[in-house]
Design a protein that fits this description.
single chain, about 400 residues, mainly alpha, DNA polymerase, domain 1, hpI Integrase, Chain A, 3 domains, 3-stranded antiparallel β-sheet
């Protein structure tokens, strides 16, 4: 029987608990192999691409040492190897320090603090914060908390913009406002971070970001004829129909409704509190009309625990949040059946409510209490997007 080889070929192990090189070396008494796990600080490198390069280099180094007689059972030789690994670890830490930068959430905090330090108008800061809240939600939902600002790309930002444009029913104007803010945000962050680390390099280039045409119709409102056809189909799905009613009667954004809890509904004061950052315009109060009151009572919402979401898991009242596209998936077959294109969205029911109220003679100021607009100019821009005019040439003119 031949003698056993001194060691088995070392292999890289990429385990959840950490990466290391597994080395099986023959025991001094030849009774079998002992496994050694050599990491050398490789798990300090968070970028997986860089970590792969480093551990491959360590494997190559180890193989060379083994060929030259390295034996982990001999302390003096092991110490030599450990010293070499320690030097490698220090170089890794140094490289990581040189390449380190602010993560996205830290960058957003730095930006906000800088805005206040420069004494920007409170209205400007408030607007920026509404944009930032959307970015934060996207970061957390897509597990990008550890991404560094310097590593962000145009592709990442387009993913953010397109996700909210489609799932949150953004208008072209809202999309464009966020796109322009991203240019401001990353331009400023680059200057701020370079003050701390002059060697930092940013990958992102927003010079090619394309804006939506302002007149592009998105979230088309439902004319009475179309609305009636859709409602007949909605009646077959009570949960979906209730969700549409919530959008219509409250004029809340789908995201606001998705994160609405029972504790936010005050029937005595007849108002609902939409809490920032779930609300686009920050904390605001939504009046409860008779129709919305009837809907709340029919769903027996006030009898539920205060922490229950109105539309939670399974798109029913629950203590757990629902996912973003649950109702959109259920709504699509209705649109397909009726031949409606993707401009007819769930969010379009909010616009339908606004159009109906204006056509019924409610004033702009009254409707603004529902939409959440804080100034008349932005509301007028919103009306122009809907192409709503409730007065001109709608009455009797001149007979021929």
């Amino acid at each position: 029987m031949g003698s056993l080889p001194k060691y088995k070929e070392p292999k890289i192990i990429r385990a959840k608990r950490g990466w290391f090189i597994a080395l099986y070396y023959l025991r001094p008494d030849s009774s079998g192999y002992k496994r050694f796990e050599l990491s050398g600080g490789i798990n300090y490198v968070h970028d997986l691409g860089e970590r792969e390069k480093e551990i491959q280099a360590m494997l190559k180094f180890l193989k060379k040492e083994l060929e030259q007689g390295f034996n982990p059972f001999f302390p003096d030789i092991e110490e030599r190897y450990e010293n070499a690994i320690q030097e490698k670890k220090q170089s890794i830490v140094k490289a990581e320090r040189e390449m380190s930068g602010w993560d996205l959430l830290t960058g957003l905090e730095k930006f906000t603090a800088d805005c206040r330090a420069r004494n920007l108008a409170e209205r400007t800061v408030s607007t920026y914060e509404s944009f930032i809240n959307n970015i934060k939600e996207w970061i957390e939902a897509n597990e990008k908390v550890d991404m560094r600002v310097c590593e962000a790309t145009l592709s990442d930002m387009l993913e953010f913009l397109d996700t909210y444009y489609d799932e949150e029913g953004w208008s072209p104007r809202t999309y464009n406002n966020h796109a322009k803010f991203l240019v401001t945000l990353f331009g400023r962050l680059k200057k701020l971070e370079k003050r701390e680390n002059p060697d930092i390099e940013y990958r992102i280039d927003l010079s090619d970001i394309e804006l939506k045409k302002d007149r592009a119709e998105k979230n088309r409102y439902y004319t009475p004829a179309v609305a009636e056809r859709v409602k007949k189909e909605l009646e077959k799905d009570s949960d979906l129909y209730n969700y549409v009613k919530w959008i219509f009667y409250s004029c809340m954004r789908p995201r606001e409704i998705r994160l609405l809890q029972v504790k936010h509904i005050d029937l005595n004061a007849r108002q609902i509190k939409a809490i920032a950052p779930t609300a686009k315009t920050g904390d605001r109060y939504v009046p409860i009309s008779d129709e919305l009151m009837e809907l709340i009572q029919s769903m027996s919402l006030t009898e539920l625990p205060l922490n229950f979401y109105v539309f939670g898991r399974g798109n029913k009242p629950s203590e757990f949040k629902t996912n973003k596209d649950g109702f959109s998936v259920r709504y699509k077959p209705i649109k397909d059946q009726l031949g409606l294109d993707n401009k007819y969205t769930l969010y379009g029911w909010k616009h339908t409510r606004v159009v109906n109220l204006l056509m019924a003679g409610f004033s702009d100021q009254e409707v603004m209490t529902l939409t959440g607009h804080t100034d008349y100019q932005s509301f007028m821009a919103y009306k122009r997007e809907l192409m709503v005019d409730s007065s001109i040439m709608k009455g009797k003119t001149i007979s021929l």
